[in-house]
Amino acid sequence: MTGRVDVAVVGAGIIGLSIAWRCAQRGLSVSVHDTGAGNAWGVAAGMLAPVGESTFGHEHLTGLLVEGSRRWPAFAAELAALTGVDVGYRDEGTLTVALTADDVAGADRLWDHQEAAGLRLTRLAPSELRDWEPALSPRVRRGAHAPDDRQVDPRRVVAALRTLVPVTEAPPDARTTVVAAGCGTAALTGLPIRPVKGQVLRLRGDAGTLRHVIRGYADGRHVYLVPRADGEIVVGATEEERADAAVTAGGVAELLRAALDLVPELAECELAEAAVGHRPGTPDNAPVIGRLPGRADVVVASGHHRHGVLLAPITADIVADEITGTPAPEAWSPRRFA
Amino acid sequence: MTGRVDVAVVGAGIIGLSIAWRCAQRGLSVSVHDTGAGNAWGVAAGMLAPVGESTFGHEHLTGLLVEGSRRWPAFAAELAALTGVDVGYRDEGTLTVALTADDVAGADRLWDHQEAAGLRLTRLAPSELRDWEPALSPRVRRGAHAPDDRQVDPRRVVAALRTLVPVTEAPPDARTTVVAAGCGTAALTGLPIRPVKGQVLRLRGDAGTLRHVIRGYADGRHVYLVPRADGEIVVGATEEERADAAVTAGGVAELLRAALDLVPELAECELAEAAVGHRPGTPDNAPVIGRLPGRADVVVASGHHRHGVLLAPITADIVADEITGTPAPEAWSPRRFA
């Protein structure tokens, strides 16, 4: 691609590609540039969990997460129809489970909090839990089903998007530059975006070992288990305020211990992959979407922290709106960090 | 290499290469053929542990293990001098430690057993343990130091041997064929040698985190920790009666849990490798060294189970003796399985 384009997107992850796709659909000429930095999508489990992610201290995000989630079914369906790629969208809902008495106490408070926010949950007795998910340990004491928490496979989503939006080596001259470079956004914009390290495992077992995404609290450890149709089970994730890319003995041990406490038969699964990603975190844990102060030709879309996959479709819509004349919401503007 | 050689060794692992080297030193023409099967040395930690390996039910092996160990200092020194390769021979001795009251009870019985066999041990109080090995958890209750249990790095040993003994594609015509093919020996000879799967981790941390090899009993789990001079720490090993090569969630979880229970600061180490090897096991857990019944031109050297590295030098000597006219000991002969 040569010459001036309408939109140059810096960052070829799930956010950048989604933006490029949506902009192109509005008739804009678009290029996408891969920075090499920012790889959170490649490690992410792909939970679309407005309920499970509505935890204490994140009330300001709930509305965005819910609306972001609402846009996923159509986004996934359109992407699959256009590309023929099965992006792994699954809507069996998510089970949140608690192992010890302390875990139950914490989960109960969390479920009360989520219900108070208007989110749908069905509390389940231990006997019901085993009907829903036979592989759960008999030690698991309590659980709740969130029908609106779903999943997608981020690697498949990105593969599909890449068939629609070619990625170029260097960004051309553009009327508007969109910086969607994950943790690389800080260096490009000066915004206070920091890496939050996450270690994630991928197990390989029999498809059907788990029927639902499991979010578990096990003896004070938090873990999620995300089963794919092909037998892959994603186990995540540590949350560490550091930038290194090392898979550590401690990180893997904590994840496996919690996973096996909740679902003992996972012990027989192959440990197929252990990887590290870096979530782009912001001081208020909310994303940064909008014009960069003092740079009317630059739009930022980053800082999605744990929610990059969930918020990719809505972020793409907001950015395409902004570029075509409908201002982005003030709440996520980079101006709040100016 | 073409034409008829004196000795063709089938198997290019630590046993086969050691045999080829020792035979060549006696003036025999030798070739080594890599079968591709048998990789136990590539995963093995390289403990040279006649004391630690003298466990209940293995009394018939103690003499061989002790004599095998005695041959290592000269073997390592000669190999290093000839090749310039540092083979990682270290003689600080090994600490065996026990975590819980049950672990202590088991370890005490084992130490009594080893001392009764005439093996050297120094029992250590908890306070002394921390002087010997400051990184040990304060929870570790008891330990003993075995000064005669040492270590070597099997990957370096094999690298050194390979500079001395070239490995060929196919075995040439030979006066004597030595089958040293690890688990592949069963298919080649019909001997009852079975794979015993072992999962082994390699951590990477600061050199000096551990001063000694640690053999630990931690809440019923057995683990060993073998520190190298370059900061690698080998953590092993599962012992499973199966032939598959999968690194499993359960295997890794058990090893890490035991390792971190004993030495908590290992949590910060990088988990650099998780691998599977297969020990060649025999019905009586003793190696098979000697002429194959009915095949006077075939000598077997396999079935070393957990002791392939420790017994490589003595096995090489026994096989070179056998080929040059000094019969191998009857105790390890393949005839016992005829």
Mind explaining what this structure looks like?
The structure is a homodimer of 338-residue chains. Chain A is α/β, with parallel strands linked by helices. Chain A has two domains: 1-90 and 149-192 and 282-338, FAD/NAD(P)-binding domain; 94-147 and 194-281, 2-Layer Sandwich (D-Amino Acid Oxidase, Chain A, domain 2), CATH 3.30.9.10. Chain A contains ten helices and 16 strands. In chain A, strands 5-6-4-11-12-13-10-14 form an eight-stranded mixed sheet. In chain A, a hairpin with a 2-residue loop joins strand 15 and strand 16. The two termini of chain A are 34 Å apart. The mean pLDDT of chain A is 95. Chains A and B meet through helix 9 and strand 14 of A and helix 9 and strand 14 of B. Chains A, B: Keywords: Oxidoreductase. Chains A, B: One of its GO terms (molecular function) is oxidoreductase activity. Chains A, B: One of its GO terms (cellular component) is cytoplasm. Chains A, B: InterPro entries: FAD-dep_OxRdtase, FAD/NAD-bd_sf.
- What pair of chains forms the biggest interface? A-B, 22 and 21 residues
- How large is the count of helical segments of chain A? 10
Question: Quick check: average pLDDT of chain A?
Answer: 95
CATH architecture of the largest domain in chain A: 3-Layer(bba) Sandwich
In N-to-C order, the SSE pattern of chain A is EHEHEHHEHEHEEHEEHEEEEHEEEH
Helix content bin of chain A: 25-40%
Q: Shape of chain A, please?
A: globular
Report the β-strand fraction of chain A as a percent range.
25-35%
Q: What is the third-level CATH name, the topology of the largest domain in chain A?
A: FAD/NAD(P)-binding domain
Radius of gyration of chain A: 20 Å
Q: What about the largest sheet of chain A?
A: 8 strands, mixed
Outline the low-pLDDT stretches of chain A: none
Overall strand count of chain A = 16
Helix/strand-derived category of chain A reads: alpha/beta
Tell me the name of the CATH homologous superfamily of the largest domain in chain A.
Answer: FAD/NAD(P)-binding domain
Distance between the termini of chain A: 34 Å
Total domains of chain A? 2
